[in-house]
Amino acid sequence: MINVIIIVLGILMIASAFMAIYMRSLLSSIIAAGVISLLASIIYLLLAAPDVAMMEAAIGSGLTTVVFLYALSKVKNSGEDNHG
Amino acid sequence: MAVFGGIVTLIGSVFLLLGALGIVRMPDVYNRMQAGTKATTLGTLLFLTGIAIGQIECMCIFRILILILFIIFTNPISSHALARAAHHIGIPLTDKSVTDALADDESEKEGAV
Amino acid sequence: MADILYNTSAVIALIAIVLAGYRSLKGPNVADRVVALDVMTIISISLIVYVAALAQRIIYLDVAMVYALISFIGVIAIARYLERGL
Amino acid sequence: MKIFKQRILLLLFLMLFWVLLTSLDRQELIAGGVIVILLTLVFFRRAAVFSDFQITLKSLIYSIAYIFVFLAALVRSNLDIAFRVLNPKLPINPGIVKVKTSLNSKTGRLILANSITLTPGTLTVETKGDYYYIHWIDVSTQDVEQASHEIVSKFEKYLEVMFG
Predict the structure, then answer these.
(1) DSSP annotation of D138
(2) Is D21 on the interface with B (CB under 8 A)?
(3) Which of B35, B32, B30, B37 lies closest to B102, judged by CA?
(4) Could you give the number of structural domains in chain A?
(5) Which among A40, B71, C8, D124 has most CB atoms closer than 10 A?
(6) Residue B97 — φ and ψ, nearest 5°?
(7) Which residues 45-84 of A are in CB contact (within 8 Å) with B?
(8) For residue A56, what is the DSSP state?
(9) Cβ proximity of A31 and C37 under 8 Å
(10) How many CB atoms are located within 10 Å of the residue D154 CB?
(11) How many CB pairs under 8 A join A and B?
């Protein structure tokens, strides 16, 4: 049961990582990175490491997203569009 | 008792699946938000309740209760914030839509100014 | 009997997470992706609680609580960025 | 007197939260929680949660009844969403309508907006003054009065007694 969950989530994580690289708008890449961190947190939990999972949830999904968004709003004048 | 909890959990997971299916099938972002918010709220509530019924001997009832309360309070708020942001940056409603009172009012105000 | 029911519901929640992930990868604009991310978060909280019941450890529930809190703040931050910049 | 009522309500709410967070079998944690909450009440004068809840017997009965009304509406909205999603023709007729509320307290409005989001086919998009803008998945009327009667009034009846 645990193995099935890990394999499915890992495949979804790899697909999301490719999308984070090849997406055209930066905001979509940030959201894809958030998805990667979400799935990584569940996989850490399934591998019996709850403290690492907690850190991954707090840093990867919360702090990194906010810091990236702050940086993106600083460089927003370079002609990047919000949509897409 | 454990079988009853399992049945409740199964119903909850079916609602979660319906929410994800609504996310895939609906035509625009507001309808997707409706399906996602409602179905996942009730689905998570039933899922967690079923697990709490099945595991009644461990003292984790309080934490599951606080998790349920937290999800009921925050899920509509995040959905509301997203809908407001989506309407603000001008994501259009689907072609089947009948009326859009908010856009009408906003254009009226801009015309007056 | 009860184990079969719990495992079946975990598999159904896994299918739901894959469907939401499909919308998050495909979605035409940013708001669709964020809605899909929100739904994936809620479903994965359910999955984390299932894993906690499977492993019989209470500390896993703390992970679920931290996760719900942090992801709520993340979604609010993205919505605020979309509205007027952070 | 009003300040005193606010403090008591905030104390009860924070105490309930703390007891739920750390289960009941650790007495020293509960004593520490009481001390920390009292310090919070002394130092943060403007902190108020549920400050405009009316403490009367009728209001308590109505709030318990409101929970059941809310749960029934939640189940009904989920069945509604399920039928709409599983139907191959996808029967939707969406639009954004405008409704008016007569509640005055802020907490009451917050709970009303959250309840509207979780009831059949409606989603709060924006609030401006007394008006809510609501995305409705099956628009049957565009008039403000009729839409208010269909969406808002069943919760407003309870919330008016609870929050004034």
Answers:
(1) B
(2) yes
(3) B30
(4) 1
(5) D124
(6) -65, 150
(7) 82-83
(8) I
(9) yes
(10) 13
(11) 3
Six token digits for residue B66: 């606080």
List subunits contacting chain D, requiring 3 or more Cβ pairs under 8 Å.
B
Which residue has better confidence, A10 or D159? Answer: A10
Report whether pLDDT(D48) > 70.
Answer: no
Residue type for position A81: D
Q: Which domain holds residue A12?
A: 2-75
The D residues from 32 to 61 touching B (CB cutoff 8 Å) are none
B88, D80, B20, D147 alpha-carbon torsion, rounded to 10°: 0
Contact in structure between A32 and A19 (CB atoms under 8 Å)? yes
Instruction: Using pLDDT thresholds of 50, 70 and 90, give the confidence band for residue C26.
Output: confident
pLDDT band, residue A14 (cuts 50/70/90): very high
ipTM of the modeled complex: 0.86
Handedness of CA B53, B59, B62, B67 (dihedral sign): negative
- Return phi, psi of residue D124, to 5°: -75, 125
Residue B57 has pLDDT above 60, yes or no: yes
